[in-house]
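Figure 6 in text form: structure in, sequence out.
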């Protein structure tokens, strides 16, 4: 009986220890479909009527463009420090999120439209709309469909794998205002996924997005643009409007429809020379619009005040008067008549 008692007591102590150890261990995240609470957390707030009107006014292109050039840049978020503002934080942190997380949420809510990536060029038509559900299936992301929107857990958003963006820029001169401006026209996220077995990285262009659709939402997202000043003083819209990013030119719109590598070849030196020449052309065109005159121009004679004429006055010279004899204080005694 004592042996049975001690065995049951030992089993009870072991069971109690296992349950206590299990409570102390952190719970592992379960890979289940997101709930309604997660759907509310992953959605983006709707635009107000005032924001819509402002967006429509800002998206209007000037009607007096007499010169324009379209350029495609490949922006690498892992090379330049200024480009890191679009990559960090990789996972949403408080009220901050990176660019692709915002884009993914907007697409899942059905607030913006994605378009197919074509080799010949982007086409923003109804026939080229990208089905976002196909993107989720291709990336093997768990989702729940609620009406026209898709609910995805924030941990499943592949924000850390979007390390490059292709940006379509427009440089134009507006004759009406006499200004030379740069504008972002479209953005294409590039998925860079590493193969853990072979160690190779594969790149895939996901889809094209019109910048005018993103502009009102980018104006509400604050980002950090400096390691020396951690205050969130810029929005994503300010970041693109001020062209704070850096990237290499990969293509310019030309009559042949070729990329820069297709025109000059794959030689790194030839590509670098072609990129520098395009940058110099843009800079030179902007400088030729203005005339900088540093010489000092003498004032015209008409603006001078007439000089005063000085006339010599003739003065009559008066003769000098003879000095009066000074009266001596000593008086000589007068002689009397009797003495004479």
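Output sequence:
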């Amino acid at each position: 009986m004592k042996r049975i008692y001690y065995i049951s007591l030992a089993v009870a102590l072991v069971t109690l220890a296992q349950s206590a150890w299990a409570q102390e261990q952190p719970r592992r995240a379960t890979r289940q479909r997101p709930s309604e609470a997660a759907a509310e957390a992953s959605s983006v707030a709707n635009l107000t009527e005032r924001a819509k009107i402002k967006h429509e006014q800002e998206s209007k292109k000037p009607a007096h463009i007499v010169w324009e050039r379209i350029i495609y840049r490949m922006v690498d978020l892992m090379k330049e420090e200024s480009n890191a503002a679009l990559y960090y934080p990789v996972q949403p942190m408080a009220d901050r999120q990176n660019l692709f997380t915002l884009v993914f949420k907007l697409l899942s809510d059905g607030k913006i439209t994605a378009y197919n990536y074509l080799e010949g060029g982007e086409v923003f038509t109804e026939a080229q709309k990208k089905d976002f559900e196909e993107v989720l299936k291709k990336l093997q992301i768990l989702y729940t469909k609620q009406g026209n929107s898709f609910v995805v857990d924030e941990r499943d958003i592949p924000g850390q794998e979007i390390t490059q963006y292709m940006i379509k820029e427009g440089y134009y001169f507006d004759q009406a205002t006499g200004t030379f401006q740069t504008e972002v026209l479209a953005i294409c996220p590039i998925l860079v996924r590493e193969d853990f077995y072979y160690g190779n990285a594969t790149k895939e262009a996901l889809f094209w997005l019109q910048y005018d659709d993103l502009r009102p939402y980018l104006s509400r997202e604050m980002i950090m643009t400096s390691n020396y000043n951690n205050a969130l003083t810029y929005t994503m819209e300010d970041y693109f409007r001020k062209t704070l990013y850096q990237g290499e030119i990969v293509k310019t719109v030309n009559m042949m429809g070729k990329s820069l590598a297709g025109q000059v070849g794959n030689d790194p030196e030839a590509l670098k020379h072609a990129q520098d020449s395009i940058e110099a052309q843009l800079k030179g065109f902007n400088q030729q619009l203005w005339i900088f005159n540093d010489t000092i121009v003498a004032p015209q004679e008409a603006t001078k005040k007439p000089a005063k004429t000085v006339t010599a006055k003739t003065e009559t010279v008066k003769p000098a008067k003879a000095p009066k004899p000074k009266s001596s204080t000593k008086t000589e005694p007068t002689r009397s008549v009797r003495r004479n």
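Caption detail: Residues 64 and 174 are 6 Å apart (CA to CA).
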